[in-house]
Amino acid sequence: MLRTAILRAARTTPQRAARIAVSYRPAVPVFVRYNSTTPPKTPEELAKKAALKERDAIQRDWDAKIISYEELLPKTQSPTPDTFLIDVREPDEVALGMIPSAVNVPLSILPESLHLSAEPFKEKFNFDKPRHDQEVIFYCRSGKRSTTASDVAKRNGYKNQLSVDRYNALSDTTMDSLLESLEVLLDDIANPEYEVEYHSGVLTLDLGQHGTYVINKQPPNKQIWLSSPLSGPKRYDYSEDQDDWIYSRDQCALGQLLNEELTNALAQKVDLQLSNVSSKVE
């Protein structure tokens, strides 16, 4: 009897472990492609290969980034109005649980939904329709539907998002340019109370009685954040169309706001020249 029990446990344990592993799979886009080493022979196999090739061409054209759980987590913990996390599963699947801060637009109705104007969209889903310049992240159970959703979004005018490398290049160039301009400005003013420092992606501008500005990179959100003693905190996204860092709520550029506030605070003309970012990237 003991031998029978051991054999049964040996047979059932791997199956149970597999079921547990699947049930706890994180619901984030993970793309897996299987490439067979056997060349297709039948007309059906050739047709399938052609369809897969066409699908791959669409995906390359879209070039939607696949993000990891580690990249997604900060966006769920500190959601912003500038990023939409959209679950494209069906309502019965979403009822079993979804990522915090996500909203649901099933893939089955996504194409027609993106054709809606802003007001009907909000009436239907109870949240604002994403703008074309906002970050949109789709997810599903295995990644297949989120891939299709990315292509649907592209066909409806939504643009590719910044890659990590491009974000770093643009933001580093902006921060370096800002530091250099501020150092020249403070040297000209020659006030010992004024100081600018830059370390680990954080720039601090101390203007004594006028307060302190803190400007820092935010790689998880692909933004530059500003804390101003005059206007408070703001988050800037890079706009390809304007080639500048733009605050989405008032469409004001980072350099424009700093130039206006520093000109008033220092009682002299300040022009930090932070626009045309991509032309300065090495």
Automatic annotation (TrEMBL):
- InterPro entries the record matches: Frataxin, Frataxin/CyaY, Frataxin/CyaY_sf, Frataxin_CS, Rhodanese-like_dom, Rhodanese-like_dom_sf
Report keywords, A-Z. Answer: Ion transport, Iron, Iron storage, Iron transport, Mitochondrion, Oxidoreductase, Transit peptide, Transport
What stretch or stretches form a coiled coil here? none
| Single GO MF descriptor | ferric iron binding
Task: Report the locations given in the UniProt record.
Answer: Mitochondrion
Taken from the UniProt entry, a GO cellular component term is: mitochondrion
Fetch the NCBIfam families from UniProt.
Answer: FeS_CyaY, mito_frataxin
> What is this protein's record name?
ferroxidase
Organism expressing this protein natively: Candolleomyces eurysporus
